[in-house]
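LAB NOTEBOOK - FOLDING QUEUE
OPERATOR: T.R.
BATCH SIZE: 2
PURPOSE: Compare the predicted structure-token outputs for two unrelated chains run back to back under identical settings.
PRIORITY: normal
REVIEWER: second-year student, initials M.K.

ITEM 1
FIELD SEQUENCE / FIELD STRUCTURE:
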Amino acid sequence: MLTDHVTGRKYTVMIREVNTYHYQIPLHRTLTDATHGEMTHFEVVMVKITSEEGPVGIGYTYTIGAGGTAIRSLIDDVIKPLILYEDAERIEHLWEKMWWRMHYIGRGGLVSFAISAVDIALWDLRGKMAEQPLWKLLGGSSRKVKPYAGGIDLYFPLEDLIAQTEKNLEEGFKAVKMKVGRENLYEDIERVEAVRNKIGVDIDLMVDANMRWKVDTGIKAARALREYDVFWLEEPTIPDDYEGHMRIEREGGIAVAAGENLHTIYEFKHMIEKGGISFPEPDVANCGGITGWMRVARFAYAHNRVVTTHGVHELHLHLLAAVPNSSYLELHGFGLERFMKDPPPMEEGYMLVPDTPGHGVQFEWEVLEEYNVQAASHQL
């Protein structure tokens, strides 16, 4: 329920329309990691929620090339009729309606992606109606966040990897991440050594194995990586092996980050309570949106953990700025900056949080339209 500041009238923000859009966006170059192989494009599924009062909330999720049609179908066929003409301010109520309506077919997976896009749109709408940026609406802990450059570069030739690192340093990053998980561990170690020698001792270095190893190999790799002062080892093994993550962190002697493939608060609960990760990594685009992300961040706080992020940094910027237990913000090659008006700037190694109401992301819709899957299919 909102109050008109002039008349004092109270009114409900009713959802009048829910529209979805599906885009396939090519990457500037082929990107590679240890599990997903070569990636040439990514998908974005967007949701526009229009209120009776006029403001529009924008939410979105993404895939690494497959599943976008299914996500859009869940939103159009299941979620849209569920939330139309509901009170947009009752976000927890709407989240639970979506969750339990699709619980039997999901409990995570594509369901969490679909809920995420809608939940983000609802929070964007709430911020606009309240004339508050999300980072303040959610807590307002800090005006700036420290980012790292996340490379998706497992099979880059070494000279390209070093050139990428040089570019990141020139742009002002104080931390960088590279991929590991090649066929032979010694190749990973050689590449990590080369990057560490390039960046020196004052820049934080993260490595990401993308679930590549069994636990014993992960422990062996962690022990070898300690020599290079690695800030964290990300996703060393499959996300479901909570015990394995604990062993790799404890026996390998290196901090572990994980969570981009965990889609519910319950999965994070198991992982954190097992003691398997120092850096929980919820992704707002697949863990139930802003509602789901904040639940993970608060649970992590209660267990003396800081949270980091995966992808969609323009949204995660607000979330890390909102909470007191924030770590690094990931920036990587799946960015949407080329389609945005005034993307958030970086100054002296920090990302500055915008004060625009809601999440502040404004798209160049006419530029995006070239990659609209529905429009392309209509032309066939």
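ITEM 2
FIELD SEQUENCE / FIELD STRUCTURE:
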Amino acid sequence: MDVLATESLEKLRFECRKNPNLIEQSLEDIVDEFNLSLIPLNDKEITLKHLAMPEGFTQETNKDLENCKILGDNLAILSAAEATDERVWATLCFGDYSEYAKARWPLAGASNPNNHVQNHWFARTNRNRMRDNAVARLWWMAHIAKRVQVSSYEEVLKTLFFNSDYRSSLLERNSSANAINVVVSILSISQKAFSSGIEFERAKFRTFMKNVDFIGKRTSLPSLSSEELEEILSPLYYEAYGSGKKKTLLGRLLG
């Protein structure tokens, strides 16, 4: 799989800041115009499948769920380490999945075209990869959903894609709560709660996530096992939802 070289990626980022409309050009033309280089990421042979084109902007019509499954299967060969490489996602957004990216995140009407392109065509940070980049976000949702054992892959994906409040509260954070193993544990706890009749409530879930952030400042959550994370975070979840369990543990953790 070939990707933009690091120097070429930075040059393209710079040129897009000057002219966001570069996304309308093909990757081949951009490479020629700015003398960019493509280099091998690995020796894996990947035949990319077409993504479903959006038919609207609601969850029912934007094809996110369908495309998440396509990328989850088609790019399953990517390792998590490779999937943190911004060059992968920028190359796909400007290359094979350019038409999809432009349809899903149209530049016309964007309040800030510069930021719009930087957010959806590039993926400089973990938050950008998981929330913003047109293609990376789909792969990462699939990757995370596959790791949740308490519910089916399909159910976890539906939770992520059909409840924007849940997804934003879970992923739009710059903290240790955004580490993959922490996200997976929170999804597992949530799925168990859903199955026991505790429905999602935005305010209560946000309270829970604030407490996770607080704990994360005192404890290295990303370094803990799934069992340790559940022992620490599950009481926080039920306390936030008013069905407090293990209050002694919660009190000890918070203070």
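REVIEWER COMMENT (ITEM 2): The chain has a mean pLDDT of 90.
FOLLOW-UP: none requested
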